[in-house]
Amino acid sequence: MSASLNQERPKPKALLFDLDGCLMDTAPDFFPAVNSLRAEHNLPPLADDIIRRQVSNGGRALTRLALDMPAIDSKNSGNITGDEIFEGKRDRLLELYIEHIASKSDLFPGMVNLLETCQQNSLPWGIVTNKPRIYTELLLARLSDRLPILSQCAVLVCPDDVERTKPFPDPLFLAAEKININTKDCWYLGDHIRDIEAGKAASMFTIATLYGYIEPQDDPQDWQADLMVDSVVEITQLLLPSLSKTTSNAKTAS
Questions:
Q1: Catalytic: which of 18, 170, 191, 195?
Q2: Rounded mean pLDDT of the chain?
Q3: pLDDT for 83
Q4: How many CA atoms lie within 13 A of 125 on its CB side?
Q5: Which residue in 20, 25, 29, 195 is the catalytic one?
Q6: What pTM, to 2 d.p., does this model score?
Q7: 29, 108, 219, 228: which sits with the fewest CB atoms below 10 Å from its CB?
Q8: 20 an active-site residue?
Q9: Is 195 known to be catalytic?
Q10: DSSP H helix total and E strand total for the chain
Q11: In sequence order, what are the beta bridge partners of 54?
């Protein structure tokens, strides 16, 4: 962790999470989708770890990976469109993804405890993602029986909801507006530089989740997040002192 647990930090009134690589490990659903597309083009399968590192970059980056096309700047890869042939290949990848979505996705270790801690302390949490709503809602719906804590999500913002997606702060402003909480009172957590840039632009306290999908060439130190964590357990450890202060103040007031 890049800071002591005792370091002064703003007390959150809400926690907002990026989805892929932060709240949830969704990469395993993409492994068969990417390799199925490769098989259709007579290409050998890729190792899981190679696919995992591209998940946060979105469908177009995964399509380029699947077709052995040159990689592009990961900071912008999710927003670059291609020609009709390429977009057709991307659509095919997403068709394959729908077949597998939620089959192996799960919350990261320790996340259920963190979300239950939020629930027990009336601290709202939500999701702000660049994953299109059709896939996000399908993922959450298919996981609802196995992970009932997901029903406690206070707000969900997808790229469909705004004109400008992350790294612009627009989705975070919208999320804060929907839960009626000042952005300065929110923590935003993510595993990509675009998450941290969006959070800082929205005046949120930013946490880089290093347990997510970090590419080898990325140096999270350069993202200038307020904190970096290696596990969800560390997030809970960061949160608990502020919740204890809230409980103590409430008892004093009564």
A1: 18
A2: 90
A3: 85
A4: 21
A5: 20
A6: 0.89
A7: 219
A8: yes
A9: no
A10: 9, 8
A11: none
